[in-house]
């Protein structure tokens, strides 16, 4: 009985394990590297591997594969998809194919889909022809559909098979199915068409002569390979199944989607949103990735921001004569704009969350605005009062400046909340990922609004005498 | 065999289901409401329920509970925790207790932990005493530990039980365990102390006289109730188990943590980060929540932002005489600040992601800076060149303005990337959630840096003649 509590913490005084590991890789001592990795607590493994540069990481796997292929494959599945894909790309094609054949079918597909498409085609060709055909079929489905998420590690039997034959099969192939969906057995006819699902627990209490067809549950949900991950999520929300069979239009059983796979892909999607919110375009960035890829991805987000930002500040250009008369406006312009942007972003976050949960969709603009208006107005007045007080305390009542700033903030924050709550719905309606565009576009629009309102109200109200 | 593909789409011409549902609730027609909800496709259920106001939602459950308690409990588990908790709070205590007893143990705990603590104590008291004791024990563990995540729906047998008795048990209690962890059976001694795990599949091939103790897997991982969700994640990454037993210090078997529960809680955490990134303090906000709660939470984030924003713009105050001489600076100040903020945010996103994955931790500041410096410098020069060109094209070379803006952007963006990549590591070291503080604090710091650099370089270089 092993417990993760027994794993010794890494003592600060000792030489850090990645240094030792790095030395083993340099000297080509695979056995020592393997032994070291086996001793690292699971929670520290990724940290240790993360210290190795690209080439060292590839070299490590080249040492591990000939010694313990199973371990090398398990370790590979610990890595984030982008790192694993990068590593496989750099291995010799034959070695990569050998390694990949030991990886679970759903991870195989994830890694290959993340790889450079030319390299992935080469690696697939180098694999066994039946496995290659399976993988090609899986890769033909989009990542976030039942076809892309399904695994082939399922237990399939002919509908005519008897319980005693199934038990015999288990006795012979004892302990080979740790990675399989074993809660259910799947019954198919002579043309591999799906017949039904047998809960493996019912085998225990069934008579040995019963057939799979007799034991099959009649009302088990099935999905077609093009069902989306959102539909799968709501399916799993509604039923207690741990997996559902994926069946082609002609009735062929293709595989099964596990409940956990659906939740993992939803989690990945949330992470991707977070990255896009932070301004990383083109997927996940890890710092071990090549510098030019990272530079390019970040630049692709910043370059359009120049244009957007210029559009916003061009509002200021129009009012430069006003600023010449009251340079104090240059101080409060960015402040009003920042606070309006923050208020708008709050509304964006709530709209994205409610869209993700399925509580609202693109049709609900007016309802959402109804729910936001009084909140926006109340918070607008509250913050505006504080702002006006700050202006009054630091500048006095210079020609009505507190009034100008307070009124401009109230109005522009209400507009910002309206834009922030509404834009994600509009994006959703247009089929664009709301997390992708709302934030930079929103900032531009809220900046423009607050610049315009502060400066036009200043032009109208401010007493320059 | 039912397929979610068969579910009819909601036709746009028909009266929307929530209107009909709302009418049934008003007239108190529970049967019609139940029938309607049974016909709504699972993927639309949450959307339909989301259209009902707080009180309508509570009224709906009061109608459903006496007619079909099981359905009411299943439907409750579809709702986000905050909505479900709110609903339970509003039900009469006895009704709430009846409803909750039908909910899975892990969801029970989630809902009760989200509720007002006084109401939740009342509801627990109204439940059966043994169930209440279980729940109190579960609630005593933090949400994101093995104790908080474990379920009690596991199959536990005495280590001396024979296979034939277990099979008899299954025969008698046929189909009662859909929500149970059934892949494993757990063997305990006469004092409920954990003895071992029996894979249910081995029952099929075992002899009827074998005991649970004989079939138990010897090297199965166990965890103590205070193990964190991160440790659980890396444990599940390393082994193929679908669940691990949770064992107290005295050896008592408390329950089991399912793999899926760990991934669901990690997903929730990502969502919470996204919300905090968007400026919602105090947890998830849904628009069906009371207005005053929503207003208060958003305000709590905006109020400190006034202070932070004021600190940033006070840099401008110092340089007001410079702006008086060149009001054009008021135009480019917000632009440089926005772009630096965006560059800094990119680095924040990558640091948070790498921290979450366990690729880096608080100790790695210098390494991360090493990985960011050249990227920051390159992108800084690239964006600065475009900015300088924009200045030159719109304003000409007025006294060296393009040089001032370009140089100021380059320097302040490098500082912004340094702050953005470093702050999350610092927060991590101090034990603060990085997503909580990095964004507003970062904006203040990057604003200050860029305001200072633009204005001080302008004072030094700009030729005002």
TrEMBL record, chains A, B:
It holds the Pfam family MgtE_N. InterPro entries: CBS_dom (IPR000644), CBS_dom_sf (IPR046342), Mg_transptr_MgtE_intracell_dom (IPR006668), MgtE_N_sf (IPR038076), SLC41_membr_dom (IPR006667), SLC41_membr_dom_sf (IPR036739). It comes from the Bacteria. It is a multi-pass membrane protein. Residues 150-215, 216-273 form the CBS domain. Keywords: CBS domain, Magnesium, Membrane, Transmembrane, Transmembrane helix, Transport. It is found in: Membrane. The chain crosses the membrane at residues 299-319, 331-352, 373-392, 404-427, 439-462. GO terms for molecular function: monoatomic cation transmembrane transporter activity. GO terms for cellular component: membrane. PANTHER family: MAGNESIUM TRANSPORTER MGTE, SLC41A_MGTE INTEGRAL MEMBRANE DOMAIN-CONTAINING PROTEIN. Belongs to the SLC41A transporter family. This is Magnesium transporter. It comes from Rhodopirellula sallentina SM41. The lineage of its organism: Bacteria, Pseudomonadati, Planctomycetota, Planctomycetia, Pirellulales.
């Amino acid at each position: 009985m092993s417990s993760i509590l027994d794993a010794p913490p890494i003592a600060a005084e000792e030489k850090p394990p990645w240094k030792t590991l790095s030395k083993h890789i340099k000297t080509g001592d695979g056995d020592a590297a393997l032994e070291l990795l086996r001793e690292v607590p699971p929670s520290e493994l990724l940290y240790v591997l993360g210290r190795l540069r690209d080439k060292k990481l590839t070299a490590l796997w080249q040492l591990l594969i000939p010694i313990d292929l199973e371990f090398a494959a398990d370790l590979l599945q610990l890595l984030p998809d982008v790192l694993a894909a990068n590593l496989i790309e750099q291995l010799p094609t034959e070695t990569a194919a050998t390694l990949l054949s030991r990886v679970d079918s759903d991870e195989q597909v994830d890694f290959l889909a993340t790889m450079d498409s030319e390299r992935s085609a080469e690696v697939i060709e180098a694999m066994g022809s039946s496995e290659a055909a399976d993988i090609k079929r899986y890769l033909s489905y989009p990542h976030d559909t039942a076809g892309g998420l399904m695994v082939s590690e399922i237990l399939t039997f002919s509908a005519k098979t008897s319980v005693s034959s199934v038990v015999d099969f288990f006795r012979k192939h004892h302990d080979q199915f740790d990675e399989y969906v074993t809660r259910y057995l799947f019954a198919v006819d002579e043309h591999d068409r799906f017949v039904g699902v047998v809960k493996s627990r019912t085998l225990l209490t069934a008579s040995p002569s019963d057939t799979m067809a007799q034991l099959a549950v009649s009302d088990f949900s099935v999905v077609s390979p093009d069902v989306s991950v959102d539909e799968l999520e709501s399916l799993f929300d509604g039923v207690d199944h741990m997996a559902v069979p994926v069946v082609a239009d002609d009735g062929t059983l293709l595989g099964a989607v596990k409940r956990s796979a659906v939740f993992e892909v939803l989690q990945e999607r949330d992470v991707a949103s977070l990255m896009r919110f932070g301004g990383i375009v083109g997927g996940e960035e890890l710092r071990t990735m090549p510098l030019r890829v990272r530079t390019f991805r970040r630049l692709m987000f910043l370059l359009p921001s120049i244009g957007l930002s210029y559009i916003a500040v061009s509002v200021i250009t129009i009012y430069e004569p006003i600023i010449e008369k009251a340079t104090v406006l240059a101080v409060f312009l960015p402040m009003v704009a920042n606070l309006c942007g923050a208020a708008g972003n709050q509304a964006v976050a709530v709209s994205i969350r409610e869209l993700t949960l399925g509580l609202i969709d693109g049709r609900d603009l007016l309802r959402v605005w109804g729910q936001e208006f009084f909140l926006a107005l109340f918070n607008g007045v509250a913050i505006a009062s504080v702002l006006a007080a700050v202006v009054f305390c630091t500048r006095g009542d210079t020609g009505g400046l507190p009034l100008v700033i307070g009124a401009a903030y109230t109005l522009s924050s209400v507009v910002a909340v309206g834009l922030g709550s509404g834009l994600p719905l509009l994006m959703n309606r247009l089929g664009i990922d709301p997390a992708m565009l709302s934030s930079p576009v929103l900032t531009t629009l809220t900046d423009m609004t607050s610049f315009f309102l502060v400066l036009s109200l200043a032009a109208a109200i401010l007493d320059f005498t």
